[in-house]
Amino acid sequence: MTGSGPDSLTPAQQELYDWLADYIGTHHHSPSIRQMMQAMGLRSPAPIQSRLRHLQQKGWITWQEGQARTLQLLGGIVRGGIPVLGAVAAGGLVETFDDVEERLDLGSVLETRGLFALTVNGDSMVDAHIADGDVVLMEPVLDPSRLRQGTVVSALVPGSGTTLKHFHRDGAVVRLEAANPAYEPLEIPADQVQVQGRLVAVWRQV
């Protein structure tokens, strides 16, 4: 992972980050501290916790210390461009693609807006077309008071880690609503909720 976003890593930190990226990409959830210890050949959790703290400080992960399952990788910058080959109909047929008309430059969007990526764990947002294993692109939220009601956000909730939900605020209370009737809304004092980002796009690998 290169670019102008996160700070550079030591070899030990890079080794752990690369292993985490491979593990989460395969299993769609974060590993335990014990699994990280085994993978790194360590007998104590202290070096792992130290590396995780540095990864978080340098902007490579988010992590609530003491709760390994809250770990999320922050996305890198997508460089270059994706060719836009034309339009596609969801009903009838259209002509086949010919020449490349333009390129969709995701890199410039990510760099200028400071977006980051999170892997979705769970099914609480399925009715918003966000499924387990999807990757969501999030724009940092500097002023939560300016968020529109119903915006999909990633929020850090004490005791629960980071969650992806619809954001609603009523005075001093924030309500985080799932897009799945099986989940009850979370109502939390606004000063106890840290809104990290708002949803910009969903990436699904098929």
Structure, explained:
The protein is α+β, with helices and mostly antiparallel strands. It folds into 3 domains: 11-73, Arc Repressor Mutant, subunit A; 82-112, no CATH class; 116-203, Ribbon (Umud Fragment, subunit A). The chain is built from 4 helices and 11 strands; from the N terminus they run H-H-H-E-E-E-E-H-E-E-E-E-E-E-E. It has helices at residues 11-27, 33-40, 45-57, 106-113; strands spanning 61-64, 67-73, 82-84, 102-104, 116-119, 135-140, 151-157, 161-170, 173-177, 186-189, 194-203. The strands form 3 sheets. It has a 7-stranded antiparallel β-sheet with strand order 5-6-11-7-8-9-10, with no helix packed on it. The protein has a two-stranded antiparallel sheet with strand order 1-2. A two-stranded antiparallel ribbon has the order 3-4. Strand 1 and strand 2 (67-73) form a beta hairpin. Helix 1 crosses helix 3 (45-57) and helix 2 (33-40) packs across helix 3 (45-57). The mean pLDDT is 79.
Write a compact overview of the structure shown.
By secondary structure, the protein is of the alpha+beta class. The protein is 22% helix and 31% strand.
